[in-house]
Design brief:
Largest sheet: 8 strands, mixed
Shape: globular
Number of helices: 14
Number of strands: 15
Bound molecules: nicotinamide-adenine-dinucleotide
Radius of gyration: 21 Å
Strand content: 15-25%
Structural class: alpha/beta
Order of helices and strands: EHEHEHEEHEHEHEHEHEHEEEHHHEEHH
């Protein structure tokens, strides 16, 4: 199989879809990896390392897209890449389909076979490709929030850990999954006064014992309103897989927040959890609305691409191998998590939650089976 790895086009993006180690593994399995020149540079991987791993370096974006059978990326394709969608091409990437309507429409109408990292779910509900990025974004959220709280960044001038005789900052983490619990752990480690909210009590249980003790709160509209009114820093880390993030912080609640409080909306990649959240970029990560500082970067792990690329490639490689060694149809038939990840095939949408979010009719199971058998 020919596997393509383009340079990422999203603003500030510095990760790359496959590392040289992953390339070597795929080459050993008999596949050809086409890597766009300098695709790995910002993650610390040179073209020379890819060549040594068996890759073929391509001069242009179109050479990669047009020359491969399976395209592996990090972030959703950029509009300039939609022209390369075709029905005999598979794309494996973060796609954020509910939040990226134009992209989803382009994927479906072109007939491309799209598999979304976000949707790939194990039988126990874990999302193994999202997890490493959520872990990293959760840890970064506190760094970014702490920076935004400094006076020279326009913040209220509050230190997370406080000082002797001066209370620590109040941090409210909404969502106690992978991103939220990592954010909470870092905030606790930095001496902040932490509340963590979730609608799943099992997720809160980890924070009821020392050394990771935090104020655990079952999330409801009123509980959240009470917590954020006291907060210096709020972290948004909720997820409903496949769907847009629920808008938990309303404009009315925002009005009750402290002046210059900071919201880091990690779930902005799924549309954001505050009514006032809108995606920003690493170049200009924050804006102020109703006296509250919003940090809404949808690709936070790109700040630490060396760590993030290796973590992501470690997680995706076993699935890339299954897709390329078995062939798409057989791999999807054999491995339910790949079936879960399938977003579109043969001009049909395969995920009902995304379908509901965007008002697109989904393929029935029978139609899907027929489309997959045509690929075999
Ligand atoms: N901005 C970025 O760079 C970046 C990077 C990685 C992940 N993310 C995003 O971070 C978010 C969290 O991902 P995760 O892997 O931690 O998900 P997760 O599934 O591990 O955790 C999500 C948690 O949200 C909780 N939840 C759902 N609805 C809720 C509600 N109404 N109130 C309170 N809690 C609720 C769930 O019970 C769950 O515990 C996702 O949107 C993901 O896409 C963003």
């Amino acid at each position: 199989l020919k596997i393509g790895v383009p340079r990422e086009r999203k603003q500030g993006e510095s990760r790359v879809g496959i590392t040289p180690d992953g390339t070597a593994e795929l080459s050993r399995n008999g596949h050809t990896v086409l890597v766009e020149t300098n695709a790995g540079l910002l993650s610390g991987f040179s073209d020379k390392q890819y060549v040594a791993a068996g890759a073929s370096i391509q001069e242009s974006l179109s050479d990669v897209w047009q020359g491969c059978d399976l395209l592996v990326k990090v972030k959703e394709p950029d509009p300039e890449e939609y022209q390369f969608f075709r029905k005999d091409l598979s794309v494996f990437s973060f796609l954020h389909p509910a939040a990226c309507e134009d992209l989803t429409n382009a994927l479906v109408s072109s007939g491309v076979i799209a598999l979304d990292y976000d949707l790939l779910a194990l039988p126990n509900g874990r999302l193994p490709l999202l997890e490493p990025m959520s872990e990293i974004a959760g840890k970064l959220a506190i760094q970014c929030g702490a920076y935004a709280m400094q006076t020279h960044s326009g913040g209220p001038g509050i230190l997370l850990g406080g000082s002797i005789g001066v209370p620590a900052a109040r941090v409210v983490v909404v969502g106690a999954g992978v991103a939220g619990s990592n954010a909470a752990r870092v905030a606790i480690g930095m001496g902040a006064d932490v509340s963590i909210l979730d609608i799943n009590p099992d997720r809160l249980a980890a924070f009821t014992d020392t050394p990771l003790r935090a104020r655990t709160v079952f999330s409801s509209e009123s509980a959240l309103a009470r917590e954020i009114a006291l907060a210096d820093l709020v972290i948004g880390a909720v997820l409903v897989p496949g769907d847009l993030a629920p808008k938990l912080i309303t404009k009315k609640m925002l009005a009750q927040m402290k002046e210059k409080a900071v919201i880091v909306d990690i779930c902005i990649d799924q549309g954001g959890f505050a009514e006032t959240s809108r995606a920003t970029s690493l170049a200009e990560p924050t804006y102020v609305e109703d006296n509250v500082i919003h940090y809404c970067v949808p690709n936070m792990p790109a700040m630490v691409p060396r760590t993030s690329t290796i973590a992501l490639s470690n997680a995706t490689l076993p699935w890339i191998k299954k897709l390329s060694n078995l062939g798409l149809a057989k791999a999807i038939d054999t491995y339910q998590p790949l079936r879960e990840a399938l977003l579109s095939v043969g001009q049909g949408l395969c995920n009902p939650i995304v379908g509901d979010a965007l008002g697109i009719k989904c393929l029935s199971e029978k139609q899907l089976r027929e489309k997959l058998s045509q690929l075999a």
